[in-house]
Amino acid sequence: MDDLKQLKLVKNIYIVMSLLFCVLGIFLMAKPKSSVKMLCMLMGIMLILYGAIKISGYFTRDAFCLAFQFDLAFGILLMAVGVIMIARKKFAVDLIFSVFGILILADALFKIQMSVDAKRFGLVLWWQILLIALVTGVIGFLVFIRPFEAAATMMALVGFSILLEGILNLWVGILTIKIIKSRL
Fold first, then answer.
1. pLDDT digit string (tens) for 93-116?
2. Rounded to whole angstroms, how far apart are CA atoms 122 and 162?
3. Residues 155-178: what's their mean pLDDT?
4. Rounded distance between C-alpha atoms, residue 130 and residue 115, angstroms
5. pTM score > 0.85 for this model?
6. Alpha-helical runs (H) found in 31-147
7. Cβ atoms within 10 Å of 3's Cβ, excluding its own
8. Which whole-number Å values give the CA distances from 8 to 53, 129, 143, 146, 175, in the listed order?
């Protein structure tokens, strides 16, 4: 597959995964008392797929090289956490809030840095990525520190953070992955 087709494929899959994260986030917010073990399996599968997409994206050549610049290591981390969530559900249930809080906070921090790089590239809407990343980071931090004791409230907060993560990645995919035929 040539570079142009690979980049288009990865961009489209990145956008679809972002939309799936939005759907999962909305589901968790609507049904926060759903089975946590089923949630671990579903999130584990999504993290493995998302990690694979991030790794694939790292090896593509998009025009700005912004969207995938940190994705080799982060993709491997996401895949590892996904495997742990599937293989060790009981262990994952105990750590689900901390793990997701850290992952969402880390990705938000990477996106904050990306927004600064996007500004340097002259992307007009860089501040939108920054704003969404800041809000996502705050929610990720809240998920990590677990300010609520009620499991349903925390699951709704996780759902909100996953929804924001999906919106953030969707916006990054749309604004920063540029396909310029002459550069490939």
1. 667 788 889 989 999 999 999 999
2. 29
3. 89
4. 5
5. no
6. 36-58, 71-87, 89-121, 126-145
7. 15
8. 12, 21, 34, 39, 14
